Amino acid sequence: MVVEIGHYALVLALSLALIQAVLPLWGVWRRDGALMATAAPVAVMQFVFIAVSFAALTNAHLASDFSLINVVENSHSAKPLIYKISGVWGNHEGSMLLWVLILGLFGALVALFSKEMPADLRASVLSVQAWIGVAFLLFILLTSNPFARLMPAPAEGNDLNPILQDPGLAIHPPLLYLGYVGFSITFSFAAAALICGRIDAVWARFVRPWTLVAWIFLTLGIAMGSYWAYYTLGWGGFWFWDPVENASLMPWLAGTALLHCAAVMEKRDALKVWTLFLAILAFSLSLLGTFLVRSGVLTSVHAFANDPKRGVFILGILVLFIGGSLTLFAARASALKPGGIFAPVSREGALVVNNLLLTTSCATVFIGTLYPLGLETLTGEKISVGAPFFNLTFGPIFIPLLLVMPLGQLLAWKRGDLLGAAQRLTLAAAIGFLTALACAVAQGGPAFSLVGVGIAAYLIIGSFVEVFGRVVVKGASPSVWFSRAIGLPRSAWGTALAHAGLGVTLFGLAATGWGVEKVAAIRAGETMEIGPYQLAFEKVERRQGPNFEATIIETAIRDGGRVVARIEPERRFYKTRQMPTSEAGISTLWLGQVYVSLSDTNPDGSIDARLYWKPFVVLIWIGAVIMSLGGLASLSDRRLRIGVASRARRREAVPSATPAE
Predict the structure, then answer these.
(1) pLDDT tens profile 551-593
(2) How far apart are CA 516 and CA 531, in angstroms?
(3) Spatial distance between the Cα atoms of 593 and 595, rounded to a whole number of angstroms
(4) Confidence of residue 654 (pLDDT cuts 50, 70, 90)
(5) In whole angstroms, what is the distance from residue 396 CA to residue 576 CA?
(6) Are 220 and 312 in the same domain?
(7) 3-class SS at 36?
(8) Is 607 helix (H, G, I), strand (E, B) or coil?
(9) 129 shares its domain with 275
(10) Are residues 438 and 556 in the same domain?
(11) Are residues 484 and 501 in the same domain?
(12) Residue span of the structural domain in which 581 resides
């Protein structure tokens, strides 16, 4: 009965989405306040029904209801509880239900927390959001029904893919979807602005918090996915330039550009056309990622489905929303009035350079990802575009961006002093150079590592120069400095933290050049050196898990004869799926990690293994957390939350001559 309730709730959610899509837009067209007012309560109810549907599917997985095809194909009665929960979205149908749940969540949040928004803009945003919901609810009900029954029901399920039976699956997809789908709101804001003609600084003020929320979650989602791949797949790597990884990186780059561009639009009422385009682009790239994962055009550890019919349906959604929004954009953008004028050397100019470099980086990843697919489609020829291409193209574009970031923070709005800003970065540049020099003496090459840590140190210090300049007053007491620091807008601290976090991540990436890797056949009783440590393989043990068998080698990590840590790398075999996996043994020592991954057992009793020493590797993910904290600090800035109502009311009082004004 619960399953049927979940299915019917999904159908009711579709009905509400259709109402939300049509009535408010009709109200905007007729200037009917009553029709426009239907958008908010219907958006909330639509989310409630989707949540009921999602809860019903979760209950089926928890109860091991093998009358559902989805549960049979992705669960097992002996599977641990956490994997029964995460298994709800560890498959195509369940992940799409999570997709629309988050889509409905963002619509409900806009309905609840944007009451001060102009009525026509609010109604249009929620209506566009509902049209996206209609498309994906239809996709689920027609091609990917998670509530399809199987009769007679088998006694046991097929278990979840062993690679997905990891705590990372409980965290990574929800975070990633909150970012991916979160950009649907910026898309809806852009389309609504074009429909209503409300394209001004007030619109930018409304859209920035939602962009920040999506960006924060996407940053954390990408970082969590990177770490999950790092410790789960056993390859010792954290980024493989996999097409689906790239599909999450592209909207992140576009979203980062949008954040900076929206700041210019809010402060100077400039770059309107570009800001709207980026809002459309960010979600369009998210839709592209959804298509790549589910269309069957890719073979990837990330791919959920390989049904071409589903791919055609999603391709239709892509064409409808991307094509429709770009058509609306082309029709309206030419009528936009130019905004504030600024000199090339100014903070606005620096942000324009930032946008150009970010979008060029995004285009590079886009071409490298889709070119092999297009070539195979047109000619049948298969080629591989991997790390060498991306490292040689993406890196040279991104490095100038890292150098410009602290400089842009120090330039004034409208007209800046380039020489003065550069002089204020002298200390940061000197620290960067000395850091690279010290690493050259201590570690030696490779050159990219030395250059990388130098730029990282410059970026970390340079990110706080502008803040320090506003806090530290010559001759004042530390208490005055503290008061000034507390009084600074949180967005200033947020910007500094986000930029510094990128520097921390860069330091961790650059330090991988000093890592050590060994491939060896190991036995109990042996000792091997890896970097500055010695690994003593003490005992091989066989253990029985809830739904797998494991071979574990107890390993002591020694530093100069003293045991500093213990790890237990293991090789698992899942009997139901008849599939082996590796669970890496990882120990974090200072900011580096010792990493051991087991492979097959040889006839002589030895076990093939990969051994790694990765100095400073944890900085890669610490930097991502710092970036997200910077975004959170900016999100908490009171200027993003107050003062909007009065400005909106003033804007309401001014009649607009045309919708495109």
Answers:
(1) 999 999 999 889 999 999 999 999 888 999 999 999 999 999 9
(2) 6
(3) 6
(4) very low
(5) 47
(6) yes
(7) helix
(8) strand
(9) yes
(10) no
(11) yes
(12) 516-614
